[in-house]
Structure prediction request, 227 residues.
Amino acid sequence: MAIVEVSDLTKIYLMGDTVVEALSGVSLTIELGEYVAITGPSGSGKSTLLSLLGCLDTPTAGRYLLAGEDVSELNDNALSEVRRDRIGFIFQSFNLIPNLSALENIELPLFYAGLSSRKSRERARQLAELVGLAHRLSHRPPELSGGERQRIAIARALANDPVLILADEPTGNLDTRTGREILALLEEVWRRGSTLAVVTHDEGIARKAQRIVHLTDGKIVSDTRKT
Prediction:
């Protein structure tokens, strides 16, 4: 089953009088349970592709099916619901709410999905156990290390059992040892059945994936699967 089906995706930005084609006719399929690294130099279009796959933006042209649903031309409200219910995000800068506890940060997507307090608390605690941070749930993000914050962010991304998890340079703000731990955790999440796409410029990180999609100048120039 295809989770992501992208056909001739194009994204054009207007920068004053300048037209910038960030993506140019990209076509890509990601199957259920795949672990894909999206790589490329700065300005290659990988961040734009991530924004479109995450329904944070809409394409100028082309089609995007997410788990069979055409999300290419949805309005902002509909896209917000898709992000809430079907996509988990993991960011380089963690994007946690600093005045909420770790537990409350994990619970946030569940709150917006309308889950009861008791059920959301139970689900959040289970996810905290999964990422190895059940002992730090009362702490707020400023009281946590970078690795701990990223673990909480991973737990939050898993909260609504998304069909697709997108990670944007997930080890970019971490030291080497902590980065390895986070990559091992992401691999565990994938092995539990998640579909995972990681945007990275680091070839070492990309080699952990099953498949490497490389972009240059807004186009896919290679798509390599491990044998």
